[in-house]
Design goal:
Chains A, B: One of its GO terms (biological process) is L-valine biosynthetic process. Chains A, B: It catalyses: L-leucine + 2-oxoglutarate = 4-methyl-2-oxopentanoate + L-glutamate; L-isoleucine + 2-oxoglutarate = (S)-3-methyl-2-oxopentanoate + L-glutamate; L-valine + 2-oxoglutarate = 3-methyl-2-oxobutanoate + L-glutamate. Chains A, B: GO terms for molecular function: L-isoleucine-2-oxoglutarate transaminase activity; L-leucine-2-oxoglutarate transaminase activity; L-valine-2-oxoglutarate transaminase activity. Chains A, B: Its EC number is 2.6.1.42. Two copies of one chain form a homodimer. Chain A is of the alpha+beta class. The first copy, chain A, has two domains: 167 residues, D-amino Acid Aminotransferase, Chain A, domain 1 (2-Layer Sandwich); 165 residues, D-amino Acid Aminotransferase, subunit A, domain 2 (D-amino Acid Aminotransferase, Chain A, domain 2, Alpha-Beta Barrel), CATH 3.20.10. In chain A, 24% of the residues lie in helices and 31% in strands. In chain A, the strands form two sheets. In chain A, strands 1, 2, 3, 4, 5, 7, 8, 9, 10, 11 and 21 form an eleven-stranded mixed sheet that branches. In chain A, strands 12, 13, 14, 15, 16, 17, 18, 19 and 20 form a nine-stranded mixed sheet that branches. The longest helix of chain A has 16 residues.
């Protein structure tokens, strides 16, 4: 039996899995809510998406997703406030970036209402799945992949758009020790590094695994030509504080235009935290560590919000970050999560009530 | 009911689709044989592969292939000679390269016997699907993708290995007009360009589409730092003949170590065709075109074998290749296909009889 919410057709699951879930001990992205949003592109257009039970996908072995990596994704979160109201954080920016990624990967762009109205309907159907506990949230994963068939190396003629959700706890626990990469690279000039393309992530696994074997948790990516300029931290943007100035690299065709990154910059501006958006060289960071002006480093992204870095490795030497009072990272993390969870005013207009 | 060939379990399809196939008018990679080889990596090891009916694959929406592009593939062909015997071309090199790709993408390496014995069993079961007509062959697509689940950006714990086959005609028809790319790039230094990783192909679609809109069929990739050195032609390696010398770029972490490419170099050596493996600059090629010393350009790869290039575009100017007698491309193509199809001696030991 199907119903409708805001013109989105709803096919409800016959049973719920929610009683199996321990909401007090959630890991990240391992249990999935009862429903998902499902849309299909065929015959030259995106068909209306539906909320359907979360269930397996069936594909021909020649589906292009298996062969040519034509896939993109987004990540955002839904939060409950004390009243039980549900909020998203800048979801239109996710939709816009999804389409920026789509264009670069030759995937047809998705209409705004398929994303926003579909997501709203999905969250209403799976309202009970949104965690209420501090530090937990409903991680939301919109993604599009090539479901059309054939071995010819060219764009598919059919695509599948899904939003799946997973009640989740923290992405990382504790502080990160990172390795400044001097051999491998994440992206090329003129490549797809600015897109949330699946292939960008698979390419990071092996270098990250090598770093883990050396005792680090993540890699700091550098430019592929000289390995002298700092680009991203694992799958996050990176911020570096030298004395009282917060610095992050400019976005480019190699660097993801992170929503947490740009929110941090707007908060810094409003709170008169000195900040610079400019290229940061490894030499500068090492020098700053040696002369004591390096105060903080942290990664910033939706999944992990703000992840403090405790030390970085560079050419066989480890450099510890100092323990400081008045950390920008802690302050910015509190400010962002208070806005996200409706604990503070939102002068930026970022919160989006469902 | 299941049987066995060389210790590979065979589950035969109950009906065959072969009567629907017009073997006189085959396109590339659009119809698929009755069976496929299917292997699964789980619990820390590759399970024995089986020949099963070619049928849809079912995956959880959180399977990492959809999100993180963790996939690799290979391409080779099976040929029938006049006696009806079946031959492959250097298949062990495909297995070795599959594992080189696997390592870079953090995918567990596949045992040789899973690939070779599995492929042999598959080809015996689908023997009738191998085209007999000149210029046609059975295109063979081995691939591995992340079938383990979860939204965490890290390698999967389960993988699926499949060999699917498609009776196929020519990949390209006629000569190619190509555009020397000056904006977009295929791969980074320290990236995954040398691997047959799915994501490398998706990133090429949009620049190729832009080139097609300008009247070209393929892009000639250049290095991402200067766009001055020639790297690959679409999804092929590239060869350039200046006067009587055949030139191709060295393999690197950005360039695929093509099996057709290295076979051409070995044939050139044995036939005393002067050749050089060195960096080729765009300036050199443009100058050679202007002074008449540029004789030929062609792409080389398994799917298309050798694809002659009729013209290249560079910075809004088109440069035509001359029509010449004694083309190296034609001569090398005949030599390779004669070896592949058992029409000539194989002093290199490349042919592999099933």
């Amino acid at each position: 039996m199907s119903t409708e919410i805001n013109n989105i057709e709803i096919q409800k699951a016959t049973t719920s899995k929610i009683s199996n879930v321990d909401f007090d001990n959630l890991s990240f992205g391992k249990v999935f809510s009862d429903h998902m949003l499902l849309g299909v592109y065929k015959e030259g257009k995106w068909q209306a998406p539906k909320v359907v039970p979360y269930e397996p996908i069936t594909l021909d072995p020649s589906a292009k997703i298996f062969h040519y990596g034509q896939s993109i994704f987004e990540g955002l979160k839904a939060y409950k406030d004390a009243n039980g109201d549900t909020f998203l954080f800048r979801p239109l920016d996710n939709w816009k970036r999804l389409n920026i990624s789509a264009k670069r990967l030759s995937i047809p762009e998705l209409p705004e209402e398929h994303f926003i109205e579909g997501l709203k309907a999905l969250l209403q159907v799976d309202d009970e799945w949104i965690p209420k506990k501090d530090g937990s949230s409903l991680y939301i994963r919109p993604f599009i992949f090539a479901s059309g068939n054939g071995f010819h190396a060219s764009p598919a003629d059919e695509y599948t758009f899904i939003i799946a959700t997973a009640p989740s706890g923290a992405y990382f626990s504790g502080q990160l020790k990172v390795l400044i990469e001097q051999t491998y690279s994440r992206s090329a000039n003129g490549g797809v590094g600015f897109a949330k393309a699946g292939g960008n992530y698979a390419g990071q696994f092996y270098p990250t695994q090598l770093a883990v074997e050396k005792g680090y948790q993540q890699v700091i990516w550098t430019d592929d030509t000289t390995h002298e300029y700092i680009e991203e931290a694992g799958a996050m943007n990176i911020f570096i504080r030298i004395n009282d100035t917060l610095i992050t690299g400019p976005t480019s065709d190699r660097i993801l235009d992170g929503i947490t990154r740009k929110s941090i910059l707007e908060i810094a501006k409003s709170e008169n935290i000195p900040f610079e958006v400019r290229k940061i060289s490894v030499t500068e960071v090492v020098e700053a560590s040696k002369n004591g002006s390096l105060k903080e480093m942290f990664g910033a992204g939706t999944a992990a919000v703000i992840s403090p870095i405790s030390a970085f490795g560079y050419k066989d030497t480890d450099y510890d970050l100092p323990k400081i009072a008045n950390s920008y990272g802690e302050r910015l993390k509190k400010r962002i999560t208070d806005i996200q969870t409706n604990k503070s005013d939102d002068s930026f207009g970022w919160r989006y009530k469902i």
